[in-house]
Amino acid sequence: MSASTLYQQVVLDHYRHPRHRGAVDGFTHCAEGANPLCGDRLRVEATCDGHRIVKVGFAGEACAIATASGSMLGDLVANRSSSEVGAWADRFSRMIESGVADDELGELNAMRELQRYPGRRKCALLPWATLRAALAGVDRTTTESESR
Amino acid sequence: MNAIQNPVEPFDVDSVRADFPLLMREVHDKALVYFDNANTSQKPASVIEAVDHFYRQTNANVARAVHQLGEEATAAYESARDRLARLLNASSRDEIVLTSGTTQAINLVAYSYAMPRLKAGDEILITTMEHHANIVPWQLVCERTGATLKVAPINERGELIVERFVDMLTPSVKLAGVTHVSNVLGTINPIAQLARETRRRGIPLLVDGSQATPHLPVDLRALGCDFYTVTGHKLFGPTGTGALWARKEILRDMPPLFGGGEMIREVSFEGTTFADPPHRFEAGTPNIAGFVGLAAAIDYVQGLGHARLRAYEQELLVHATQALKTIPGLRIFGEAPDKVPVISFLIDGAHAHDLATLLDHEGVAVRSGHHCAHPLMKFFGVPATVRASLAFYNTHDEIERFVAAIDKVRKLLG
Questions:
Q1: In A11, A99, B151, B187, which residue has its Cα 20 to 30 A from A25's Cα atom?
Q2: Cα dihedral sign, A33-A35-A38-A39
Q3: Model confidence at A3, in pLDDT bands (50, 70, 90)?
């Protein structure tokens, strides 16, 4: 097993240079996602034009897995309808649990090694849950109550 | 000390390691470096065999069967009480209440001793470096009684500020709770000194000994505290074992917390008379095999000799601390001069969980997170740390591998 199958280059690139980072001017939706056991804390701001997501921005302190997941998520959901986000989140969740690649998920497939790390899946899921909360009008969320 | 020990005899770590079967395994195709001992320790073969032997040869319930197996099981189980009394230098075996661990022991004191005595306006004093097990039970009894919890501060090196603790021992303080050794910082608190101050004021002192007994000889008569707790699984014994020690006169005044079998003298529907301590606090069938294992664990540790273990562990601590300090951007939390080999740290730009996952890839098991000490994390202004906690079976070579792995991981994340 390579030392960094989970922390492969694409994940590290998104961690070091995360996209969709920072505040979103005139955002229409926002939420806080926190995993107090881990210490991860994210804020997401999003602008929607009707049901279409125009822009997403994450801020806060998080580990490489959460940061990279949020960065890749932003790429995937731009210009999608907000109702599609839930379906994408479920596919992503299934992929990291099964370890089976899902071509539509693109770079996020790098996270499928999480199949072997049940304790770290909550990190990858945090930006997804936070965006879903924002779109649903919920202020805060966590992924720590998910059983591992 | 009452254990067999010979400080002149060099410590042979290789032969000690051979006693711990799990240490031989590999993780991710690499030899395991187990540095998560403050979380739970590994078990020597003598403990595993004692539990196995109990179930194969002796299994019966305790203190109620007159048949041969019942007598043997009771003797084996009760031998843990004798070992604990000897380990702690308690005056009497009857001062040892067997519990599932420190959490249950502290809760027993909180509900059976403190709660009936507390009223609005009273205070309980703890410290910033307590484990949640020595915070939350007090918060719960404070909520029910109107008492308040106050917290004695620590300094940047992770030491209790003793003068502040003493200043806070006001007449409204009805109980003080202090950890003997910090599970995050490794700091050894000056318990004998604190106990002199609490005794002078007539305030009972509870000491959380969960992290102390794996590293230090504990002499209750020298410490002078009023309650002391032990966690078996950190002391190389099975999970679900532990103890509360308190002086006989204190235990005698404490009502039972749980009712059931084993803790009664006579039961009728009009009323029940309770057994004397310690059995009064031991309702239900206990973790019998676990305590048989704990007795073997205490024999094992005392056979090696705490003084010798302590000297070797200090060498490991100095080595690990010096080696970690050579890593750029690494910050150690807890630099008290008097500490056990528990080292919490962070590296600039790297998250604790990423470090722990990547170290695991290198075969190194450490803990990352808040270590059940949220208030302490807040004091240092960090959400989480990585903690390397060593035991006497760890080696200088393992420290070298650990530090090399950190350096590799740091470069990957940097």
A1: A11
A2: positive
A3: very low
Question: pLDDT of B312-357, one tens digit each?
Answer: 999 999 999 999 999 999 999 999 999 999 999 999 989 999 999 9
Q: What's the predicted TM-score (pTM) here?
A: 0.92
Look at residue B2 and tell me if it is in a domain. Answer: no
CATH number at residue B293: 3.40.640.10
Q: Which of residues 350-369 of B touch A (CB under 8 A)?
A: 351-354, 357-358, 361-362, 369
Domains, chain A, ordered by start: 3-142 (3.90.1010.10)
The complex's ipTM works out to: 0.85
Please indicate, yes or no, whether residues B222 and B359 belong to a single structural domain of this protein. no
Same domain, B84 and B226: yes
CA angle (B311 as vertex; B307, B312 as ends), nearest 5: 120
Same domain, B342 and B282: no
Nearest Cα residue to B250 out of B81, B94, B85, B79: B94
Between chains, do A64 and B369 touch, taking CB under 8 Å as contact?
Answer: no
Asked if residue B23 belongs to a domain, the reply is yes
Position A2 scores a pLDDT of 47
Which of the listed residues B234, B269, B302 is the one where a domain comes to its end? B302
In this model, does residue B259 exceed pLDDT 70? yes
- Whether the per-residue pLDDT at B5 is higher than 80: the answer is no
What are A96's two structure tokens? 């990291």
Mutate which: A1, A2, A4, A65, vs B, most B CBs within 10 A: A4
Q: Measured between beta carbons, which residues in chain A are less than 8 angstroms from residue B413?
A: 7, 12, 15, 64
Would you state the pLDDT for residue A148?
Answer: 41
Catalytic residues of B: 372
In terms of domains, do B224 and B310 share one? Answer: no
CB atoms under 10 Å from CB of A17, counted, come to: 9
